[in-house]
Amino acid sequence: MSYPYQIQSREEYDSVYQKSVADPEGFWSDIAGHFYWRKRWDKVLDWNFTEPDVKWFSGAKLNITENCLDRHLGLLGNKPAIIWEPNSPEEHHRMLTYRDLHLKVMQFANVLKNNGVTKGDRVCIYMGMVPELAIAVLACARIGAIHSVIFGGFSAQSIADRLQDANAKFIVTCDGAFRGNKEIPLKSVIDDALVQCKFVEKVIVLTRTRTPVSMIKGRDVWWEDEIKKVETQGNADCPAEEMDAEDMLFILYTSGSTGKPKGVVHTCGGYMVYTNYSFINVFNYQPGEIFFCTADIGWITGHSYIVYGPLSAGATTLMFEGVPTWPDAGRFWDIIDKYKVNIFYTAPTAIRSLMGYGLGPVQQHKLTSLRVLGTVGEPINEEAWNWFHEHIGKSKCPIVDTWWQTETGGILISNMANVTPGIPTYATYPLPGVQPVLLDEQGGEITGNNVTGNLCIKFPWPGMIRTTYGDHERCRTNYFATYENQYFTGDGSFRNEEGMYRITGRVDDVLNVSGHRIGTAEVENAINMHAGVVESAVVGYPHEIKGQGIYAYVILNNDQVDKELFKKDITATVSRIIGPIAKPDKIQFVKGLPKTRSGKIMRRILRKVAEGEMENLGDTSALLEPAVVQEIVKGKL
């Protein structure tokens, strides 16, 4: 299999980019023409950013699983589609060919149908990183059900919030999951969530850890029993449901600047074209290579670059159940050598964490199969980039520093391996088809180079967000209302003299902790639910491993408490309400918060204190009680 739209040189990148800006519809029509469509589109693109209303490939009919599975069976049927490395290196790995995966997806699609799932139903998937997670995702897409994967680290309350928002009546989960030396009781967490969600009709449970679980008659069924029923019925075949290009494919919840998570909606046609196109071009993927993305499928990176991007390209994608430091800090390097991984895509947080273990775990490995490295989730600092390049890539592998978001569906700005140059800390150039601009606070475009501004995209691309589920106004306000006729990313960026982009961080109230976006309001709401808390304010600060840490300023209703115990109580509260990923790293107890006379908390001041910039706090004259600031500075942790 070759990829006619794979860019091979810098000169080709420049000319293709020009074409993509001059004739975007012709550009994307050419690329989309290489996929399998049951009916071609009537119109490539309809859009306005005011509503917003964006439609790609209007009138086209397809099923994404036919492009990820069926069309590969002739040439690639016996080629590995998924290689699965379990949590424990002692356990045997699994390899599913495209033919195996196709059969298992059809079987589970029939299980979903047998349990009442129909086209348009929302199915919540809360599983560990096992092949059945990818199978469940594809089985939903096969029958036109909308999958909503929830990361296995979220709490029962977070799951309940998402189930209620999506009105998901069907759940697929596991008895438990292995993660390093921990066992996570997934089914038990689901049971806690369902106390608030009586509308859920079926829970399908995969056996993984053999943890004892409660199975409610009429509601809960075992995955394995349901597969046996399908095998007994002899109905292995499950024709793919015909979908419109703009039908919903999935909902993925992400944190916003308000407390309630928002369900980002992606649709079938545009998302398929964009994830495939970006996968093939950014990583310079060559047929037959092994691609290892270390993300969890509970995040957009796993959706786009473990499942849909690689499989639509006929690639071999490697799934890993465990963590990089267990049973020791050489686990990633073991996997790379064991399977002769060619492309390795991970997060800067993981790299910084592994740097802390020294070179011992790395030096025991060859890593000679590696050809391309990549990072995702947050900007990578220069020290980590250099370590990754020198010690993992042996100074010969390009590092693609990819910038994108849940809302963008796929990578928007990145160097392309062996095509465009990469330099430390820069995402570099936009992909052809992506038109970034830098705007000032008033919405004026900042032209030229060596400039900084708010990063926006001025023209649609096929993988972009269509709406926030059940609340289109929230989509408009979050992404399209700040600047007229622009998609606002929420990030700031610097553009250097060569036109390369370096992302400088969030400019809104969203934190980026270990590559996971967490809304400050979400954490504050969780802290404020503790009975002893009057009010709180949360900001980010530089963290040497996570990139950004969470710093919480908390007012207590009783100052005479055991402060250390209270910090543990607050941490436990946040873990229970959101999940461990949102736990504050530092909690400073304060008597008051810096507020304007209208009652708005001046987070700018709190951010500067958390970052240690106490000399330059700016004008505090507008504050209701300026003295509060000095007290906060004195008590800084």
* DSSP strand count: 30
Pick out the low-confidence regions. none
Strand order of the largest sheet: 5-4-17-16-18-19-20
Please compute the radius of gyration using only Cα atoms: 24 Å
- CATH homologous superfamily identity of one domain: ANL, C-terminal domain
Task: Profile the largest sheet.
Answer: 7 strands, mixed
End-to-end Cα distance, whole Å, is 57 Å
Question: What this model shows, in words?
Answer:
- Helices cover 32% and strands 23% of the residues.
- The protein is α/β, with parallel strands linked by helices.
- The chain has a domain at 510-634: GMP Synthetase, Chain A, domain 3 (2-Layer Sandwich), CATH 3.30.300.30.
- A hairpin with a 2-residue loop joins strand 9 (177-179) and strand 10 (182-184).
- Helix 5 crosses helix 9 (223-233).
- The chain is globular, with a radius of gyration of 24 Å.
What can be said about this structure in brief?
This protein is an alpha/beta fold.
Keyphrases for this structure?
20 helices, 7-stranded mixed β-sheet, GMP Synthetase, Chain A, domain 3, 32% helix, 637 residues, alpha/beta, 5-stranded parallel β-sheet
